[in-house]
Amino acid sequence: MTGLGLAGGAILPATAEAAPSGEHLDTTSLRFAVITDTHADVVLPDRSKDLHRMLTVAQGLNPDFVLHCGDITDYGVDDEFALYRSSIPAGLWDRMRHVPGNHESRWTPDAFETYRRYFGPEWSSFEQHGLRVVGLAPMQLLQEPGLFGADGFDHVSRALRGHDVPTAMFLHYPLGADNYYVNDTEDFLDRIAGHRVRAIFAGHIHRQQVAAFNGLTQVAMRNTYAVPSFYWVERTADGSRLDVTEVAVPVTGSPTSTPVATIPLGRTGPGEALEPKHATVHTTQQSITVSAAFKTAPAQVLAQVYPQNVFSGSNAGTWVPLARNGNTWRGDLNATALPPGEHRVQLRAIGNDGAAFDRTLQAKLRANSATVSWTAKLDGAIQGALLPTSTGFVAATTGGQVQAFSAHGRSVTRRWRRSVGAVHRAPALMDRTVLVPSADHKVYALDASTGSTTWSTNLNAPVLSTPLMTKIDGRHRILVAAGGRLYCLDSRGRILWSGDLHGLFAGRVACDGERVFAGGGDGRARAFDARTGAELWAVSITTRTTPYQLLIYGAWNDELDLLPDGSVLVATVSAALALDPVTGAVRWQKAGSYIYTPSRLTAYGLLLIDEQGNVVMTDPATGATRWTIRPVLRAFESGPALSRDGKTAWLVGTTGLLTRIDLATGTAESVLQVSKANTFSTPTLIADRTLVIGFQDGVLRGVTGL
């Protein structure tokens, strides 16, 4: 059976290369199974019964090991993990190896703690019979897309260092080809170059796709519970390749096997010889000229502007064939519709066998005014909003760094630095104290001038929400969620009361001085007595019924707000709702996925932004639309920054495009493609002159010339 290469969105056959004469390859018998996307769910027990029956068949084939490519469960909670564990046939568990999927990272309230209890570390590696096997986990807690980041690449390098044997990797998201689920895939391909990575097994897309590129063959698999089926992999007797088949296990009748792919294990993998000797780009405001030369002549060379606005998805692309002149290939890409700033160009060389070599090049389109004047690198991703202070701003990262900065036009000064546990949500300010929520179970109170710890409080679960500093009866109170509970702390960090949120809440509560309002994990919004924590009301804000659906279609990630008439604004992926603060009754609702990006009250009305990048100016009293535009294509959690006069909103889309919005007229202008990295962090505007934006690559970027 042949492998498959991907060219310009079309699947082409790729022949397997034989191992070079004289090369030593391990010929020990090696066989293993691969499964993915089992989605264990306590309300869908047939999935687990099918899984047990299917794995019993796989066990009968005596695999050396079984790989699971993630989405083990529907939403990563203990009872689902326990159900999955009970589905594994006796005697097979010790041969199982797992990596998490987005369903283990997107909605987990405990930052992988339960996952690790069942399966061990997210990243793993082992060697068996001359095959190196590496489990990859480029997952982002509370987010959809994948990202390796510096820490992930360190895991990759350690797993490969000193192992000159064929390597197979397994992870949840498919890489390369037409897949754009992992934001730094091109850096991953650079990192593994020369390390004999020959196979990648992946899931997520719930369909089968085989692609051969950059020396490896990737098999993205059907979701296991669909047929159900598993993938069976055997190394040939001469050790030169892996043969992959899909084994369907119907409820009745015998299992059937279908050939899927052949994966060569030789020292040179498919497409590897097509690596360009050199490749360059030259930009003007109208075009990007791409040029590449090769030692081994490809059959075809294509290029395209990287589809930056594809958010955790697949895209066939708009590939342009380059023209050949000797060993050099050259062509122009249209740049007239691109904003100024940072861009990428994808180069794809395709051989006669259909295998490809992909390389990503950097391109910059000159800006007339707005530009990135300074950058500052932090460890980890900047996932929560930046915190404005009287002297500048504070940024916190998933690497556990908290840093305070002062910005001065075209420069920035670091004032202090602290290390805590991973921070996934924004810090808050209480007078001269910075309140930091951490996945190490603590809320830290840091002196805003020095960064020294004033106090810390252990809430016995990862703190994955943004604290709200408010006053109740004239006294400072801190309201924050952790581990499915809402906590009220005093200004010294003492717990005054807690309330049950019935599951994950990763947003921010609202408080009117009498009541505290929150979302939760069971599809309801709730009000608590601000003084005692007693529950006052709970109202359903979704029509879904199963635990998994109640969570993801509820207000689990919303930053609740108070409207001028006292209504509570709460949002889900289906609608924004204004609720009566006393009863929870719906006063108005507006269809749209407004749960992720924070709303803003302006002099012109209530600014709502949905996940598709639609910006809607709304009457806060009635929910009526005043105007609507779509300045960015995706918007998740990075809220608008308002100018000092309140007339302009600066919005950075998730994929890094900065836009200027006139709030009076509802018109927008693309200003700058600030970065190739994603952002989920609300920026801060310093003195109306510098917009500071934090990105998932851990880089702060200061944009001036606004």
Q: Could you characterize the architecture of this molecule?
A:
It comes from Kribbella italica. Residues 414-470, 476-591 form the Pyrrolo-quinoline quinone repeat domain. One of its GO terms (molecular function) is hydrolase activity. This is Outer membrane protein assembly factor BamB/3',5'-cyclic AMP phosphodiesterase CpdA. Pfam families: Metallophos, PQQ_2. With 706 residues, this protein is mainly beta. Among the domains are: 3-8 and 29-270, Metallo-dependent phosphatases (Purple Acid Phosphatase, chain A, domain 2); 274-365, Immunoglobulin-like (Sandwich), CATH 2.60.40.10. Helices cover 9% and strands 42% of the residues. The protein contains seven helices and 56 strands. It has a six-stranded mixed sheet with strand order 5-4-3-13-14-15, with helices on one face. The protein has a six-stranded mixed sheet with strand order 6-7-8-10-12-11, covered by helices on one side. The radius of gyration is 26 Å and the shape is globular. The N and C termini lie far apart (57 Å).
Distance between the termini: 57 Å
CATH architecture of the domain at 3-8 and 29-270: 4-Layer Sandwich
Mean pLDDT: 95
Largest sheet: 6 strands, mixed
DSSP helical segment count: 7
Provide the low-confidence segments as ranges: 1-19
Alpha-carbon Rg, integer: 26 Å
The structural class is mainly beta
Name the beta content range: 35-45%
CATH superfamily of the domain at 3-8 and 29-270: Metallo-dependent phosphatases
CATH class of the domain at 3-8 and 29-270: Alpha Beta
Secondary structure tally: strands: 56
CATH topology of the domain at 3-8 and 29-270: Purple Acid Phosphatase, chain A, domain 2
Q: Strand order across the biggest sheet? A: 5-4-3-13-14-15
- 3D shape: globular
The amount of helix comes to under 10%
